[in-house]
Amino acid sequence: MKSTIKSITSVMFMLVVSFSALAQQAKPKASPAESATGKVNGANITINYGSPSVKGRTIWGGLEAYDKVWRAGANDATTFETDKDLKVEGKALPAGKYSFFLIPRANGTWTAIFNKEPKQWGAFKYDESKDALRVDVKVKALTETQEKLVYKITAKGFSMDWDKVSVPVNIK
Description:
Elements: H1 2-26, E1 33-40, E2 43-50, E3 78-82, E4 86-88, E5 91-93, E6 96-103, E7 109-115, E8 131-138, E9 140-154, E10 157-170
Antiparallel strand pairs: 1-2, 2-3, 3-6, 4-5, 6-7, 7-8, 9-10
């Protein structure tokens, strides 16, 4: 009798552990990893980022503070990679892989930052002395809420769209 109870208990334990592991695997990430690729003036561009959702939250000036460096996505810092030298907003950016940050502002322009340290978790260890380039960009209001953060690469550059804001960055 004791061995039967012990066997049943062992099987039940294994089932609970198995179902728990399956439930964790099936659960989608809150901010899944995404990638945008494309060509701009002959350069191959790749942007890797975590894509959070608005979920009814106040994003700008709430979840993401104004006037502070932000990782421009979720989880790891967003990365921007180009295989050719570029002109970003008229300023030189050598070919390479960079972390990409933004400084949101309540009014006017935002600052786009290309930092020489691409492997960072968020902006917690961001070091301004490693910036390869900083440029100011004019944001645009979106007519509809962009629920999931998304990067789009076009013939003229790229944009980060989230909530009611589009941040276009011009590349030549």
